[in-house]
Design goal:
Elements (H helix, E strand, L loop, with lengths): L1 E5 L6 H18 L7 E6 L2 E6 L4 E7 L4 E5 L4 E7 L2 E4 L6 H14 L2
Parallel strand pairs: 1-2
Antiparallel strand pairs: 2-3, 3-4, 4-5, 5-6, 6-7
Length: 110
């Protein structure tokens, strides 16, 4: 697994929440280090996770909206921070449920 990380140092609660989420995602990715062929890059609050079959998950912040967006080749999700968790504004599912499902699908797609 190859990792490149470039984040701006920013002040403000939203950035703290985003940094925390990105660190948690990195920790999850490390669990698959020797199991799945993947790379990721973080640059200016955009995380791109790429898999061996050219599938992608892209996670980024939308500063004006105070949201996190997650996109795959199949769908896109927008998350608001509510009651200490990132909740999808369309499905009301939390970020981790959607991320883990997207990860499973994108990592196994042909």
């Amino acid at each position: 697994m190859k990792k490149i990380k470039i984040l701006k140092e920013e002040k403000g609660n939203f950035y703290i929440l985003v940094n925390k989420l990105f660190c948690q995602i990195e920790d999850k990715l490390k669990l698959y280090e020797n199991k799945i062929d993947l790379d990721y890059i973080i640059q200016d609050y955009v995380m791109t996770i790429s898999f061996s079959k050219k599938n992608l998950i892209i996670i980024n912040k939308q500063e004006i909206l105070r949201q996190i967006w997650l996109a795959t080749t199949l769908n896109g999700y927008h998350f608001n921070y509510i009651n200490n968790q990132w909740i999808c504004n369309r499905t009301n599912k939390n970020f981790w449920e959607i991320f883990e499902n997207a990860f499973l699908i994108q990592s196994k797609k042909m």
